[in-house]
Amino acid sequence: MGEEHATSTADPGLSTATLDHLLQRFLDRATPATARAYATDLHDLARFLNTPLPLALASLLHDPDSASRLALAYASHLRHRSLAPTTVSRRLATLRALVSYARQLGLVSWSLQLPSSAQLEATSPPEPGSPYLFPRHPDEVDRLDLQHFALRQALGTNLFAPLASPSRILDVGTGTGQWGFELCLQFPQALVVGFDLIRGKPNPPSGYRHVRGNLLQGLPFQDGSFDLVHQRFLTAGIPVASWPATVAELVRVTRPGGWVELVEGPLNLQRAGPATERLGKLVFGQLAVPLGLDTTEAVFKALDEYLRQAGLEQVTRREELLPVGEWGGQVGSFLATDVRAGTTRVCEVLRAQSPGLAEEAADLLRQAMDEAERYRTVLPIAIAFGRKPG
User: Fold this and answer.
1) Which string of b and e fits 170-193 if b means at least 16 CB within 10 Å?
2) Phi and psi (nearest 5°) for 94?
3) What's the CA angle centered on 246, arms 290 and 154, to 5 degrees?
4) What does the alpha-carbon distance between residue 292 and residue 288 come to, in Å, rounded to a whole number?
5) Spatial CB neighbours of 145, under 8 Å, sequence gap ≥ 6
6) For residue range 84-142, what is the model confidence (pLDDT) as tens digits?
7) What pLDDT digit, counting tens, does each position of 265-299 carry?
8) How far apart are CA 11 and CA 16, in angstroms?
9) Engineering a disulfide at 8: which of 62, 78, 117, 361 sits with its beta carbon 3.0 to 4.6 angstroms away?
């Protein structure tokens, strides 16, 4: 989305003069107070797109699909600026009113479809103050599920810890819940608990329960509650300094004789081309570093050591290189989609800070997807698991 609306152009019939005339008539028909509010809202849209106001109107009036995508991206931008819901609703209503007036004048033949309340909610950060890098988005479920299916296919399993017949399993940072759903099928006698800031997919298996919470504030479970505690891909949500205490908290709720399994990769890809490397430095330097997240592979390299420091035994580490790109078959295709979608989401967050940098990142992302094929880019992951002494 980040790169789609920014390159939109107007219908050839909508000249700058036509757009200026439309805007003036739109404002003149309103009361002075309403006209001032309309002007403020439309100039804010132009700042969001980093274009002059006529070009912003051209993007809005280009076609119904791109206009709806633009409205959703703009809503996400407003939410990430922590504006009041009434302000967000008013600014979106201004866009709809302008398109409606353009339709009255015969400049367009369609109406603007604004984001639903569910879509607006999905554009909000998961929790105020959360350091999680990726914003919520209506399509995030698809991205995380693709990521899960790619990992399962590449690794050939959902779990490496040698469990026999667990009765209670905890999945921390469960995302959509898909990993937990599949563990319910693998161990039908077990209760599987998914813990996350937001609820996962609807219609979970009967053996699955969701608990909402923030890992950085501690787990709401008693000591020794679970036979297995699983956590995956939270480098993008746990500051480097918090990792030892976080792993200790995972171990606390694991029963004696139970297992903890961690799966993580670095934020940066390997065998990457120059545009890909520039994209990583730009995005993560601008967003991840201020959040205290790991951009140096420190967590990736120390994953097994965290388990040892927390007192686990029989600690095992294995590493895999997963393909990113069509060159890697279905796994590579899935992970390329994951990388593209995830980075696009982050570009929308970046846009709130610097529209210019967001556009540069969007262009670098297009180049990075081409480089993935030429350089055979890979995502390294580490799996570390260990047993709590009995």
Assistant:
1) bbbbbbbbbbbbbbbeebeebbbb
2) -60, -45
3) 85
4) 6
5) 176, 178
6) 778 888 999 999 999 999 999 999 999 999 987 656 655 555 555 567 777 666 678 88
7) 998 999 999 999 999 999 888 888 888 999 999 99
8) 11
9) 62
